[in-house]
Amino acid sequence: MALRLHNTLTGRTEDFRPLEAGEVAFYTCGPTVYDFAHIGNFRSFLAADVLRRWLESPLCARVSPGGDPEGHALGEGGYRVRHVMNITDVGHMVDDTAADGGGDDKMEAARKRLLDQKKAGTLPEGTDLGAFDPSDPWDIAEFYSQAFIDDALTMGVKVVGEAQDDPTLLPRPTRVIPEMLGMIMTLIERGHAYVASDGVAYFDTQSFPEYGRLSGNTIEAIRSGAGGRVSESTQQVKKHPADFMLWKPDPTHLMRWDPSKELGRDVPLAEGYPGWHLECSVMAEQRLGKVIDLHSGGEDNIFPHHECEIAQSCCAHGTDLFARYWFHARFLQVEGAKMSKSKGNFFTIRDLTGKGFDPAAIRLELIKTHYRSNANFTEQGLKDSGRIVERWRRFVEQGEASDDAGTRNDAVAQKFADAMDDDVNVAGAIGAINSWINGVESPSQADAALMRVFDGVLGVLGLEGAGPAPDADSDADAYINDLVRRRQEARASKDWGEADKIRDELNELNIEVTDTPEGPKWARKVGL
């Protein structure tokens, strides 16, 4: 069996076939860096990361561009994946449900928010005013870009780790302004875009009959100005209400460019900034090519963002496709409700690690529900994921310390592969692992090695623990260690009264103790 993947473009689950033998070009829509990325954002990023890791896994059966199996043995598969994820630092409007946007640029909204926080003395931790100017969108973009990178490294997002050596794997629109302007001029010259009387460059959706294929929308049904998001005067200058912005003139915008200077020639565009949709078309081509294998994002990216990307790319390059397979993760709820700061259920990665949760448990909790199902992130689920991670860690430690070389269990390897080939069924893969571990009394070296192969896809065992809670110190730890030791001694001598007394004191200190075959282990109790 080879990978079968649901393709948003066709609405079907299809056999995956690469454009080039043994290679996969993969583009992921990353964050807009006007704030910290939240766990809902990371659900989408991690779904893409798991897919990428599966494509690279030696357990993933390769096929040719024509779909023929390559015939390699189990454990000798895998593709070479070129993965790129953008970081949006300009042009993403607050109202991104409308094709040409509405309201402020999100970076401008961030500037206003941070200036208010500065007055209130509530700026985010790490915004050193000696090096950070909350009125400067460039500083804002750099601060939140680095925050995202730090959080993504904590979560083991592979492309972000690779970008530490090759920053072009995390491209930013502010660094490709001439290339974006070049694509706009190509679209204008080919009759797919125009400059309206308000000076805005728009894409002409009527020039691309396939517009709407990804999302199911049609240009007849689309009214991007509905609900007052776009003014009536803006609609009047367009050829069609579905036409979307490529470039907006704005001499007051703090992040603006002069197109004629950027291109070194006179062009009919005034000083301003690019539309959000344009950047991905340009950066994907620049790093991966005109037609790519895979494009991923959250389901909220399907329309208008990804729909507009397809139109731009196909019309600029004269191709029938931009990406052959479109991969979209569904939304994340927290404790059964939509995330909201006002409800107190809005979390970032650093919020959770600051509470003491293990990054490996956070990652497992975010990837274990099928990416095409809405996920419910709960405190109980997070704790359950933590227990699974600890169990896997002990299994690997015991196997690697064993004198028994053992042999690889190809049956469980095939079950794992079958689950992952079934539209990235992570839950099925986890079930195969846990069923296998339940039947192994003493893991061998081969068992530990196979678990490492599985983890190469899931990506949890290599993540560093969250460490002590922020209020922990060495003296307190030493006292807790002594209490745990005394409790163990009391239990060993069957002094249950003393053991219960120590247990109650540990509870008062918010410490939970887990008795394992290797002895008691303690941790500070954590909660959302």
Kindly summarize this structure in a few lines.
By secondary structure, the chain is of the alpha/beta class. 41% of the residues lie in helices and 13% in strands.
How would you portray this structure in words?
With 528 residues, this protein is of the alpha/beta class. Helices cover 41% and strands 13% of the residues. It is built from 17 helices and 15 strands. Helix 1 (39-56) links the parallel strand 3 (23-28) and strand 4. Helix 8 packs across helix 9, helix 13 runs antiparallel to helix 14 and helix 16 runs antiparallel to helix 17 (496-508). The radius of gyration is 26 Å and the shape is globular. The relative contact order is 0.12.
Largest sheet, strands/sense/barrel: 4 strands, parallel
Radius of gyration (CA) equals: 26 Å
Level of helix content? 40-55%
**What is the overall number of helices?**
17
Strand content: 5-15%
Mean pLDDT: 91
The rough form would be described as globular
Structural class call reads alpha/beta
DSSP summary, beta strand count = 15
Order of strands side by side in the largest beta sheet?
Answer: 4-3-9-10
N-to-C CA distance: 41 Å
Uncertain stretches of 5 or more adjacent residues: 224-229, 466-472
Based on the model shown, name its key terms.
528 residues, alpha/beta, four-stranded parallel beta sheet, four-stranded antiparallel beta sheet, 17 helices, 15 strands, 13% strand, globular
